[in-house]
Amino acid sequence: MTSARVSMSTCMITGHSLRAFRQSSRQTLSGRSSRAPIIWSHSRSFQPLPLRSNLTNNLGVKSQWKTSFSTSALRLGETKDGSASPAAVTPGTDGKDPNSLTKSIKSKLAHEQIYNIPNLLTFSRLISTPILGWLIVNDHPLYAFSLFAYAGTSDLLDGWIARKWKLQTVVGSVVDPMADKALMITVVTCLAINGSLSLPLATLILGRDVSLAIAAIYYRYASLPAPKTLARYWDFSLPSAEVHPTTISKLNTFLQLILIGSTMCVSLLQDPAALDAAASVVSAPLLGARDLLGGLDGVEMAVKGMSGVVAATTVYSGLSYAWLKDAVTILGEDEKLKKKQGFRGRMIIAGTFGSVVLVAAGLWWKELEKRKALEVTEKKNGK
């Protein structure tokens, strides 16, 4: 009689557990509330019941059945007595509290060490850019050439120091190309205003950068996954497209820097007072190059020839982004959409930079007409 009552009690408890299990399963699948509360009530449904280990065995469910449902890292490896086992801690934390580990990571990310030599050199180059422009426009060739030499040297040093001593920072990766581009735009514009650089060539150099910037704006917007919000647009942790500079583009940038330096050297050679005030380490190579090229006229002819080469490489490098399909890689899995977006971006470059080339060609033709008219006038006056 006693054994019959025990069996009956066991059956009642087992039935009650089965009903609780079914009810909790329905709640989990119904989706009427958030996942975490459902899982929490689901986990608690077995705890108040007596004979927990026996009931678990009778139901055919292992004691670790909660690991499939719980979202808490501390409950995944819970033992039979309800305490957390060593396996309950998130892997990789070495037994530490996951919350404390998260705080530690956030603390390290939020306090990146940005006060280092490479970043100081980069910011000094960015700050010196408007000063350099003012010196060029106001005809101070010696100071302008010296500051330009410092900017070029610092550009080489900051990258080398950052790589050698592992001082790369997110701020540096953003500010360094911005400083380079600001230096190039400022120097080219001021040299054109000063008359040292021809207006058609300056139009090509600046127009190419503007054209690529417009295309970059389109590529970013078109390839950004939905929703296309302003915050997500400027969130560069969401990559959507990759730009691969072409070989001719890298060569073009190098030749542009050489041309700018040579143009500033011509301005320095045309100012005897500034040349006398310069140190021998600067004046001696310039005078030697002038004598080698046959005087100041030979230097000016060499710079004009280099200007023609830079104009050709600028046109070729700008238009190469219009026909090379692998210059810009759009991320994503929709190949048809990526192909359409890539074609539109290349057409934007072709249209904008093609217009720049036509404008530069028109300016160059006007300069030729002025030179011919000036030569005719000089011949008449000479007669």
Would you tell me the structural class of the helices and strands?
mainly alpha
Helix content: over 70%
Number of structural units classed as domains: 2
What is the residue-averaged pLDDT? 78
Along the chain, the helix and strand elements come as: HHHHHHHHHEHHHHEH
**Gap between N and C termini, in Å?**
143 Å
Characterize the biggest β-sheet: 2 strands, antiparallel
- Say how many strands there are: 2
Widest sheet: strand ordering: 1-2
Portion in beta strands: under 5%
Unreliable sequence segments? 1-14, 24-96, 105-109
Radius of gyration: 36 Å
Q: Output the number of helix runs.
A: 14
Q: Overall 3D geometry? A: flat
Description:
By secondary structure, the chain is mainly alpha-helical. Helix content is 72%, strand content 2%. The longest helix has 48 residues. It is flat and about 70 Å long.
Features:
flat, membrane, 2% strand, disordered N terminus, 2 domains, 14 helices, 72% helix, single chain, 383 residues, transferase, lipid metabolism, mainly alpha, two-stranded antiparallel ribbon
Describe the SSE topology.
Blueprint: H1 2-30, H2 35-44, H3 52-59, H4 98-110, H5 117-137, H6 141-164, H7 170-194, H8 199-223, H9 230-233, E1 241-243, H10 247-269, H11 272-277, H12 280-292, H13 296-323, E2 328-330, H14 335-382
Helix pairs in contact: 1-2, 5-6, 5-7, 6-10, 7-8, 7-10, 8-13, 8-14, 10-13, 13-14
Briefly say what this structure is.
The chain has helices at residues 2-30, 35-44, 52-59, 98-110, 117-137, 141-164, 170-194, 199-223, 230-233, 247-269, 272-277, 280-292, 296-323, 335-382; strands spanning 241-243, 328-330.
